[in-house]
Amino acid sequence: MQTLALVSITLCLAVNVWAQKPRHCRSPPLVVGSLTVSAREGEFFAEAKYTYDALQKRVRFREFGCNNSQSFHTDKLILFRKRVMYDISYHDHSCKRIPLRVHFHPMEVPREAKLLSEVVLGSSSAPGQGLLVNIWVGNVSETGGKYFSTFTEFGCLPVSSIYYSNSTGWVMTSFFNNMNGIGNPEDFIPPDFCMRKENEETEWGTERDFFEALF
Ligand SMILES: *[C@@H]1O[C@H](CO)[C@@H](O)[C@H](O)[C@H]1NC(C)=O
Ligand SMILES: *[C@@H]1O[C@H](CO)[C@@H](O)[C@H](O)[C@H]1NC(C)=O
Ligand SMILES: *[C@@H]1O[C@H](CO)[C@@H](O)[C@H](O)[C@H]1NC(C)=O
């Protein structure tokens, strides 16, 4: 009898946890992973590896892609605290050092986002076949843009985002192979050839949000 009571209490608790409304969550502070971005009706496509550090506000992107039928490769180190972005090319040891006016935006469900739905990607028929995610929608008032963002219910990791603004059009981003923790701390140290004086560049004119900065 006691066992039955315990089991029913446990079940009750489990159901309560399950029934909790999804919360506006923030991703873990240290994440490495990969993503794909496509935009301009497929004229722009890129795959990137990223290293993300929300504690010290810095991000590294190594990106391969195709823009207007031209392939490109970029390597960007963004140090938000130092207000600088390095555009790095190991190929010819060139480096653009670009002062930054954009603010760091952590990977999170924005406070003003509204929950559209909670769904299982894949299947809930058996363990390991599905992924429980929350889909959020919102507007970016600074750019007049709007977005759909999908985050995992457990772990609060980004799964995908669809972003639209007049200046970018539709931008689709998918995240995969995320891992907690920083893989290589040197990802955040600019190479020596970035420290030369002639590598100063002009300032970015506009404030950009996270998705536009990604793009
Ligand atoms: C893609 O190419 C267009 C036209 O050449 C250029 O204006 C644009 O800045 C490029 N976009 C990116 C993200 O490189
Ligand atoms: C976004 O803005 C549109 C148009 O102003 C509005 O109808 C919609 O409810 C807003 N969505 C959210 C999630 O705030
Ligand atoms: C976007 O473009 C549409 C149509 O040209 C225009 O009506 C709207 O005001 C623009 N929105 C922003 C935020 O610029």
From TrEMBL:
GO terms for biological process: cell-matrix adhesion. Keywords: Signal. One of its GO terms (cellular component) is lysosome. One of its GO terms (molecular function) is calcium ion binding. Residues 1-19 form the signal peptide. Belongs to the ependymin family. This is Ependymin-like 1. It comes from Paramormyrops kingsleyae.
